[in-house]
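Predict the structure of C1q domain-containing protein.
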Amino acid sequence: MENLCLLIVVIVYSVSANSCQKEILSLRRENHMLKTKIDAIEDKLDYLMTSLTKFENSIENEHIVNSKNNNHAKRSAVPVIAFHFYASSNLNSLGSHQTIIFDTKLTNEGNGFNKYTSTFIVPSSGFYVFTWTIDVMNNICATELVVNGMIVGLSYPDSVAGENNAISTTVVKQVSTGDAVAVRANGCRQLRSDTIARCSFSGWKL
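Done. Here is the predicted structure for C1q domain-containing protein.
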């Protein structure tokens, strides 16, 4: 009887063990299938995230290009204002507060500079750069940049006997439409302006 009971226990344990093993194998297969599906989903997510990043970068780049194009179009739409004139020959015996005549045009975009009065009439308000070069011979010469007659810049070139010396001066100034800008001399005996050295006056809007 005891042997029969033991045999029954062994049979039950064996059946139970086989059943557990099958259950374990089944769970392993299910786990493997789930892992495969999860891996596939993660791959799809990675692909979607990569695609989304590329799309966002594309949109951002397009926005940058459009902004640059718009800014370029805006800059292109703004008319250029710039001038450069120089004296065609030497200037002698300039009196006090006499406007220096720069009679030869190299540039006059916007037509703001009048070569006969040697005065720049501001076409539109804004910040401008003005620069002038004076070459003196055998003397000293004070010059003034004036806006509506008010001094906004100064230069004081000088030279010893038998020599000439040039000096350039630059002023950045906010001016308004209709303002008159010119360079005046203040006691200059002789200014040199020829094929070797030139007296000149330039300006442009920023």
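The mean pLDDT is 84.
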